[in-house]
Amino acid sequence: MDHITLALPQEPADGIAGWAADLVDAMGAPGAGLAVALENLFPPLPSEIILPLAGFAAGQGVISLFAALFWTTLGSVVGAVALYWIGALIGRERMYAIWAKLPLVKTADLERTEEWFAKHGTKAVFLGRMVPIFRSLISVPAGLERMPLPTFLVLTGLGSLVWNAVLVLSGYWLGDQWDKVGDYVGVISKAVLVMVVLALAFYIVVRLRSRGTAQHRRPS
Fold first, then answer.
1. What would the pLDDT profile of 20-44 be if each residue is shown by its tens digit?
2. Which has the closest alpha carbon to 66: 164, 181, 156, 136?
3. What is d(CA 124, CA 109) in angstroms, rounded to the nearest whole number?
4. For the CA atoms of the chain, what is the radius of gyration?
5. How high is the pLDDT of residue 78?
């Protein structure tokens, strides 16, 4: 079979898309899986570029659509498992020790977070795989709380498959306009980031006010 080179006239050769395209050209579908695994470990690598690119490669006949979905999902799971074990190695005791040294937080906050994860962790891991920014981060608390690994693997695999399928198929259907997917997902990512920053700012303001009130009520 003749080798088909994946041409990307809209991207610089040294850009993320050029790097991912080189991996696919050199390794085929496993190259796309490797790129996604690295994206999980290093979130600045954008899945909204890598996954539609894999779909575009499938549309060009460089790899099969099934291979694109299989290897990118496997890459997602491998990257997530690495983060899971980072959380497991940190452990609850070390996490509590680190938490106790942080300003503006209380042990009770971490305890409530643990209670919430114990009740909703399965939904959080599954749905979190479809939310930009949290896609990678959700694996760490799963490891901290030692969610059973088989459960984690199933939930991560299913959630990743849904996310990957949407972006890979979008790139497959859009063809030469595959990069448009990144524009839309980028807007969603920025919206999520803004909400996180606002929530964090609100938390800090509330914590500072409660601390100020407590000091004001303290008898002299």
1. 888 888 888 899 999 999 988 886 6
2. 164
3. 18
4. 21
5. 95
Percent over 90 (pLDDT), the chain: 26
The distance from CA 32 to its chain's CA centroid, rounded to whole angstroms, is 16
Residue 165 CA to residue 159 CA, distance in Å, equals: 10
Whether the CA torsion 92, 98, 100, 102 is positive or negative: it is negative
DSSP string for residues in 131-193? STTHHHHTHHHHHHTT--HHHHHHHHHHHHHHHHHHHHHHHHHHGGGTTHHHHHHHHHHHHHH
Domain range list for the chain: 16-217
- Write down the mean pLDDT value for the chain: 80
What tokens were used for 195?
């909400």
Given this model, what pLDDT does residue 5 score? 54
- Residue in the block written with tokens 């643990």: 114
